Amino acid sequence: MGVYKELFHYIPDKKPQAVLSVVLSVLASVLQILPFYFLWKIFQDIVVYQNDTQAWMWSIRIVGCMIAYTIVYFAALWVSHLIAFRLETNLRKAGIHHLMQASFSFFDKNPSGKIRKIIDDNAAETHMTVAHLIPDNASAIATPILMFIVMAMVDWPMAGLLLLVTGISAWQMKGMMGEQDFMRKYQAALERMNAETVEYVRGMPVLKVFRTTVQSFRALYASITSYAKLAYEYSLSWQIFSGMQIDLEAVRKNYPCALGSSQLYRQWITEMFALSKDGLHRGIEVYKLRFLELLLYIQNFNPQQEALCRYYQHCKKQKIEKIEAFLTQHLTERPTIEELSERFLISKTALKQAFKDLYGMPIYTYMIHYRMETGRQLLVETRRSITEIANALGYTNVSKFSACFAKIYGMQPSRYRNTHWMKTGVEGIVL
Asked: What whole-number distance in Å separates Cα of residue 216 and Cα of residue 191?
């Protein structure tokens, strides 16, 4: 309310219209809630009293309330928008008037980007605040009260339970907003970062033409760093468990059906949790929380209660490992799923699902990565030509091998080999 009192100092003649907008908004809320009560009366007459003579009357009232709600709410918005347009105009005039009377020291202490943002953006935002928030806030306050009243008329125990749940939700929402002092610092840091960004963008031509210092850039960097620190602290305030450590390698050994045995997957998980040990990767704590539910399930997994995993009975696990060994030892061959299924006596569906769960990716994707890793080793450890390496990996077309290699390692095989050999001092480049 204090904000609105300050705003109405600029439009003292519009206070009656503001009151009218609030009254119309509350009336619109009443018209919005009444149809639910009328609908309950219809069900009560038909189901409880076995009497449908009044259903038509209640239906007419529902339709009338819906039409009246649309008209009244539009009128509330119309009145609030008239107020908002006048307020925006007066704010711009007042801002320019005070700016004309300001001293030069004011412009030295306040960047022009910040001043422009206050006059242009904030004046426009007040239009939204007044035009929509006046009727919306009135409706937001009136609707729950009316809802509780209607609920009490229908079933007062249910209304009491609803009131209890609402109180718990309000308490949780208050906790989500954080401490007031901290949130003020957070909002101030966000405001500084926005202002410095505007200042830097507008000052780029000056920096280029006159070759001035990059003081504005350093100020922008400092504002971003300050905001990032506060955002990180706000994220940590939601940390539920602290000091909790889970040995993923031990979990994988004891419960292979939970994490699988993919070297790529294990390496990614291990590196991800190892990064949180140093200050440069403190943001990884967020990922810990994301994985917490999954890890707790894995940690509580009881193999005695579930003696056989869905796709990892002992014999099936051995069979999938034999299939993987066959594929990696015969890189020049490209057997289909049907051929593998017939060769190793396993259904196609079970083969695809079990292989993906055990190695972390489908057979086709796994073999591409395996072939590319083998090709990378051959490139840096041997002097075989790229054509020979491609043929050894089962590629009859060298261009397809080069395209897959570049997709994974970011460069063509010849460039990758040359770069590695230049770093290690090996002479005699083979293409």
From this structure: 16
> Is the pLDDT score of 261 beyond 60?
no
SS3 labels along 102-124: CCHHHHHHCCHHHHHHHHHHHHH
Closest C-alpha among 194, 214, 195 to residue 204: 214
C-alpha 105, offset from chain centre: 43
pLDDT at 300: 59
- Contact between residue 39 and residue 57 where contact means Cβ atoms under 8 Å apart: no
CA distance 179 to 175: 8
Predicted pLDDT at 208: 61
The answer to whether 405 touches 373, Cβ cutoff 8 Å, is no
% of the chain exceeding 70 in pLDDT: 71
Give me 310's structure tokens. Answer: 């869905």
Contact (CB, 8 A) for 319 and 340: no
